[in-house]
Amino acid sequence: MIEIKGLSKSFGDLTAVNDINLSVPKGEFFVILGPNAAGKTTTIKVMAGLMKPTSGSVHVCGYNIESEPLKARKRMAYLPDFPFLYDKLTPIEFFRFTGQLFGMSESHIQNESDSLSDRFSLGEFLSNPIESLSHGTKQRVAIVSALMHAPEVFVLDEPMVGLDPHHARILKDILRERANQGMTVFVSTHQLSVAEEMADRIGIMNQGKIVAVGSHSELQAANHDNKLESIFLSLTLKTDGRN
To answer: N or C: lower Cβ tally within 10 Å for the chain?
Structure first.
């Protein structure tokens, strides 16, 4: 579902992503970990079609995100850590707008937005302008909007930011449910607990490179350590001073 081949992205003399290769199959829950400036968000922005790679390619559901962006984006959803929403719209209006972009019927939009809004406790906020909502409530609106069209691939960058423990649990449950149904989930996070609890496989990124990939048990065996925290620290200890 996601194929990354020889991907590099440079900004002048800075190489943020350095020749990475990664394959994430259908239905896998993949979590990428890394320190600040490891290259995670840059990789995700290239995956989402928001940046052009310096070299290499990203395919989503078989489509090259650079040469066939509409076909790739139609099959995916992207949730940044601080999503952009149209603040003057209400959540209901925003859901309708998003659903129409993906060619959903009015009845389908209504059914999906109602079901997801109920799970994320959005009922009392649906008719309020988005600009009046708290950061956490806006995050829940963005999540519902992203899930409505049942994407084949869901890419999330620090999705738990702003969510209280209750709604973070709901998001994790929904992502696990959807992955079990065949949706590919790609999550970037600093929360090691999310990787330990949710991931089918974990990638660790440092200084623009993926330095380890595997299931939790595979990483433990390869690094002779039972704790993900110590594995992470040992693989990312060296730094080039980037913030």
So the answer is: C
